């Protein structure tokens, strides 16, 4: 997110028009996972990292069956889980989102389908869009063996089908999740005209609505 402050002026307006008009092109249609979790009762948690957490959280806040979304950091230690430290790219943390969802309404596999197709580009190594560094890496922090197995099989499925123009670089990792500072939470809702949001994240939400109307809210 170190590039956010330079996205201004006429270039902003032109780029925003282009990205909004081409929201669907930026997303990649992907098949549903062949292996998924069964419907179950009770809330469950998924933790996903895919670049700046502003956009990833914005996407999943619009998914039916998602109860709560928190932006934060995963993969590093508790005492380095602050924005100022994470942006030094020395903490091992990734910007991530914690998704509380109802598996009776949306499955873990559906969340991963949205994650791979709309929320970020899983072929970019240690970067997303204008942001670069390991804190912007593509990573799935599996919360249990079932999630780990589903994620691993889905990545293999998508790679075997050559769904993307390049191999998926998403890693399956472990690590605790730590909530980010308050001003990062629900950032798009509070800052819908922020230049970074307009250029990078509104198109993701638009693509979700277009590609997955049955789960969009």
What does this protein structure show overall?
With 217 residues, the chain is of the alpha+beta class. The protein has a six-stranded mixed β-sheet with strand order 7-6-1-3-2-8, covered by helices on one side. Strands 4-5 form a two-stranded antiparallel sheet. It has one domain (30-189): Peptide methionine sulphoxide reductase MsrA (Peptide Methionine Sulfoxide Reductase, Chain A), CATH 3.30.1060. The protein contains eight helices and eight strands. The protein has helices spanning 9-21, 23-26, 53-61, 83-86, 108-119, 145-160, 187-190, 195-211; strands at residues 44-50, 66-74, 94-101, 127-128, 131-132, 138-141, 171-173, 177-179. Helix 6 links the parallel strand 6 (138-141) and strand 7. Helix 1 (9-21) runs parallel beside helix 8, helix 3 (53-61) packs across helix 5 and helix 3 packs parallel to helix 8 (195-211). The protein is globular and about 40 Å long.
Outline:
This protein is of the alpha+beta class and about 220 residues long.
Features:
two-stranded antiparallel sheet, alpha+beta, single chain, Peptide Methionine Sulfoxide Reductase, Chain A, 217 residues, 8 helices
Helical coverage, percent range? 25-40%
Name the strands of the widest sheet in spatial order: 7-6-1-3-2-8
Low-pLDDT stretches: 3-25
CATH homologous superfamily (4th level) name: Peptide methionine sulphoxide reductase MsrA
The class by helix and strand makeup works out as alpha+beta
Strand content: 15-25%
Characterize the overall form: globular
> Which fold name corresponds to the CATH topology?
Peptide Methionine Sulfoxide Reductase, Chain A
Q: What's the number of domains?
A: 1
How confident is the prediction overall: mean pLDDT?
Answer: 91
